[in-house]
Amino acid sequence: MKITFVICLLIFGGCLAAGPDNQGTEFIIGFMENLIWGSNMLEMFLTTTANAGAKVNITLPLYNPSFHQTLTLSRGSIEKVELSVDLRGIGTELSNKAIRITASEEITVYGVNKETYSTDGFVALPVDTLGTEYVVATWTDEAEFMIIATEDNTLVSIKFPQTSVGVAIAVTYGGSTYNNGNTLNITMNKYQTFHAYQDGADFTGTRILSGKPVAVMSGNKKVNVLDTGTSTSSDHLVEQLLPVDTWGKEFFTISTPDRTLGDYYRVIACQDSTTIATVNLGNHTINAYEYLELNVNTNNFQSITSNKPVMVVMFGKTVGNPADGPNGGDPQMSIFPPIQQFPSDYTWSTVQTPTGDFTNYVVVVIDNSRKSDLYLDNVQVTSATWNSILGTSLVTTTLNVNPGSHSLYHSNPASTFMGVAFGNAQTNSYAYAAGMRMATINGVCTVSTAVPGDIVDNDCDGWVDEEENNGIDDDGDGLIDEDLALPPRIDGNWAAWGSWGSCSVTCASSPGTKQRTRTCSDPAPANNGLDCVGSATETGSCTVSLPCPIDGNWGSWSSWTSCSVTCGYGTESRNRSCDSPAPQYNGNNCTGDGEETNACWSGTCYPSILGNLDLCIDFSFRCDGTRDCDDGSDENVAIAGCVFCSSGAGPDNQGREFIIGFMDNIGTNNNLELFITTTSNNNANVNITTPLYNPSFLSTVVVSRGNIVKQELTNGLRGSGVEMSNKAIRITASEEVTVYGVNKEQYSTDGFVALPVDTLGTEYVAVTWTDKAELMIIATEDNTAVSITFPSTSPGTAISITIFSATYGNGDTLNITMNKYETLHFYQAGADFTGTRVLSSRPVSVMSGNSKVKVVDTGTGSSSDHLVEQLLPTDTWGKEFFTVSTPDRTLGDYYRVVACQDSTIVSTVNLGNHTLNAYEYVQLNVPTGSFQSIISNKPVMVVMFGKTIGSPADGVNGGDPHMSIFPPIQQFPSDYTWSTVETPTGDFTNYLVVVIKDSLKSDLYLDNTQITSASWSSISGTTPALVTATFNVNPGSHSIYHSNPASTFMGLAFGNAQTNSYAYAAGMRMATINSVNDDGDGLIDEDLAIPPRVDGNWATWGSWGSCSVTCGTSTGIKARTRTCTDPAPANNGLDCPGSGTDTTSCTVSNPCPIDGNWANWGSWSSCSVTCGDGTYTRTRTCDNPAPQHGGANCTGSDSETDPCNNGTCYPSVLGNLQRNCTRKYFGCKAGQIMCIDFAFRCDGQADCDDGSDEDALIAGCVTCPNSATTGTSNYFDLDQNFHLFTYIYFGIFYQL
């Protein structure tokens, strides 16, 4: 019965949840036909509850690809967008009239189809809530519906009801007419719209099925909803339909506000024998797609319940008499959500009439005990008239609201209620649910872990988020906190202002600005709470006088040095200097390192032994099984380092270099994919190249712990047929990484875990399935001799490989020499390469599998898939293995066990014992759930092949065949990091299968969470006892580990989809298989595991550093640090979360030094002399400002001079005064001659009567003792040689 039920749901579209609620980030909607009356536009009203606001884009993808409107919404605001009425559907047509709305945050969208006397609105549903089954609801006459496709190639089936009221259905499309009971099938592409209309008809009960999610609008072009006493006034009706999987069983009637005529309710069923119960309107039974119409009197508030999911639609009646509706009102239509879909928080918008505003209301239904904690527009509802709803503890009220955007919420998010928006006007009305949840409550439910507010029925009781997180069984089902609502809404409040920040200018005297901030954190808004009101930043003015710092900047990098080693992994480095420019004036030093290192590879390190220094043979002859040295030392384990069949090739599947390839697959529609992750706490810098195929190709990615990076590569890198090519892919990393390869085509996908170069070997044995077998060899070094020996016998078509003009069959050996990065690819239809031996002189990578093959068994289907694994070198094979089963399948699996030595005995619990020779295999058909051991006396390789699914009953999540190589128990790690795979069209259903000792299972951690609940199954024939379990995992990167690293276990990754599968070991060791501690071999600690994983923990904070400001009143920043050392992460432990640096504001008390600055120069003084050359002088003072607090004095002089000249200076003697001679004349002492020209003075000839002009005392004449001419005299230039002559004459003192 369970299987039949699942198939039914798959057919009828009710299996998956449509989405959370009516808020979303993408909407694809349409508008139906309306009666054109005047010139109006289509309208959309958009609002958001996001505190961050939302950026919204509106496009018409097919109708007008160039149309693009962008707007920004803020919380609580509403934006109206107008669109052309040409976007309305018309008649019956297939068109391109879809409207797409996308947003950066969740928004609410309401559509309004408005004409004079004909208006209605609807709440739009986001794309993630859409479904694939709907049932149309309309009134009788001018019925219409519109389907909007959201994806290409959507098959839509429209089945009209067998009977309908009004005119018989007759919809003509594509040249055919469809009547009652007929089905119209149509294929739609993304953004196409299909609109159906018929005058006089009623489409209620029309069923719409689609292959992919669609949006559906339903209603009437313009119709009157008549009753006794009503008028013929009509209105447009519209609602966006709810998918069937969101329908419910409990509803309530309310009344259109301010009317007395009552309302009609139509209750529509989706299943036969649906019983509908009311309080006083009778009980009724209807079948699928039939409906019950109830005429409910005004204020007849009562419950409507059903035994199966239904949809309830309210039709408000046409108002005929003003007494029946004082605010007027045409008919309106509203779809009611069931009680389980009631939210606890609404945001909605009113609508405008073509000529103004409606009278707007919101009708509320809530439990009577919880009505006191409602908040309308953030104000508690304290005054309302509440009416009881018959047969329930619920009450209802009607609240008047103003035009615009509104919010209504309950303080307890677990207290849900219904809100329906109404608007009445004289010739118009509207009605729609103010909001609703869109959880899947009508479909298959799986119990899941509760996440607060996830809008998921976690406990499968038909209710959504009904529990408070309070440790109480709120819903009385015996479970506590099993399906949690969000915590209560918390509105944000500002914390105190922080200190002022630094000035915006740091090195100039011009004014700047400083800021201080506050955070909305006292408390921070949470659970849809309001953001703080006002600004988080305040600005003030400031000045500074410090010189500008110059920050240092790095110069160019030097060239890379040579690799630090001559072989193996080393490092190369390069340097740079902080000199472009160097830091000056307290500028910052360069950030980052002056030295950079990178991993480098210098080729394989070969043993450096005594023989290398003496007699020599070619290194390729070492360990080749033939003695070339006389003493055989070239084949000695201790001397030559030879390893045979049981020695480890390397550590594990994590590494720093990988050289891999991809084999042929069917089709060329998809890229190849690499998934790369790391367990290193340091980021891994990864380079991906195709050295020979495209030497210029280089992709660089950075991988952090716990994350996964996908790299796509051209599918031209696949091997093709039989070819020698250059298709190697090289991956190198600065830290150890894990690499998974995925070869993906539609209906043909598989993946493999890549092995690093240091784990590769020189001997492999191929494993494939029968038909389309393929093999690829990738060389990692030049001059690699490769020998391929095909098995003597093989199932399927006989082997026949033609290459280099030669054909090789069963038992033949092909020898070839390959250079580094060359690839050799084999493919043969019908063949099976299992048992093919590959030997090489130097390490190679080998891929093995099938291009696309079905793994058939009795009852399996014919579906096929790509198979691939990277082969393990024979020196890593083991002797102890275990079988598991492909998850969620019942057909069982095949196992192939391959030997590398003769006389290998393979033992099982109940599948027989078998003896094999080298390169032979035994195939085991293991039923599902048959968990048992596979033991051998010599090393073997075990490969699992999942079978092709024939019937959905054999695999509930689908799945083609797959292939996986199992590691032996000795190669189990204790710690895995792996990634899931994506299908070409989406995600797989992903699993991890674990095998572990029963005594150790309690200490496993999946994604760092301890596994406490799992269904474990025993594995037969194991001592100590082993158990296995299967875990479902989400798409992405995952980790699983045991708290004790000595406790190893097996992890296998699986993925199932309807037409694809994958499987591979989640990880493996690639080491020497030795005895281990605690194994009773008489040795203690001879082979130690790493110590247990240690996650890092922060040490205590260090002391605060110096403040970034050293003086003044401005606020600076100081920092303190902590180290991840208490303890430090070790043994693959997690790094500390959070930051190692903490900052806070700081101030200092000492004032900043103020350097002195000169005031302006004073005025120039008078010339310093009254005659001859003198100076002007001016001064300035150091007081603009004066130096303070240790500031520097002004530099330079406080005075400044400039030359001046007041003419020739003449002696000022008595004669000049007594004789009244001017300055240019000499006054004689006595005589008739009073004044003579000053040039005649002391010229050796008396010009005054008394000869005083030649007198030494009176005229200042000086006779030169060495003069050669008698009577000739010279006088001192009084400006150059100033002598003092003093006269006392009539009491007057003169100074010359």
From TrEMBL:
<keyword id="KW-0732">Signal</keyword>
<dbReference type="InterPro" id="IPR036383">
    <property type="entry name" value="TSP1_rpt_sf"/>
</dbReference>
<dbReference type="InterPro" id="IPR036055">
    <property type="entry name" value="LDL_receptor-like_sf"/>
</dbReference>
<feature type="signal peptide">
    <location>
        <begin position="1"/>
        <end position="17"/>
    </location>
</feature>
<dbReference type="Pfam" id="PF00090">
    <property type="entry name" value="TSP_1"/>
</dbReference>
<dbReference type="Pfam" id="PF17517">
    <property type="entry name" value="IgGFc_binding"/>
</dbReference>
<dbReference type="Pfam" id="PF00057">
    <property type="entry name" value="Ldl_recept_a"/>
</dbReference>
<dbReference type="InterPro" id="IPR035234">
    <property type="entry name" value="IgGFc-bd_N"/>
</dbReference>
<dbReference type="InterPro" id="IPR000884">
    <property type="entry name" value="TSP1_rpt"/>
</dbReference>
<feature type="domain" description="IgGFc-binding protein N-terminal">
    <location>
        <begin position="120"/>
        <end position="414"/>
    </location>
</feature>
<feature type="domain" description="IgGFc-binding protein N-terminal">
    <location>
        <begin position="750"/>
        <end position="1046"/>
    </location>
</feature>
<keyword id="KW-1015">Disulfide bond</keyword>
<dbReference type="InterPro" id="IPR023415">
    <property type="entry name" value="LDLR_class-A_CS"/>
</dbReference>
<dbReference type="InterPro" id="IPR002172">
    <property type="entry name" value="LDrepeatLR_classA_rpt"/>
</dbReference>
<protein>
    <recommendedName>
        <fullName>IgGFc-binding protein N-terminal domain-containing protein</fullName>
    </recommendedName>
</protein>
<keyword id="KW-0245">EGF-like domain</keyword>
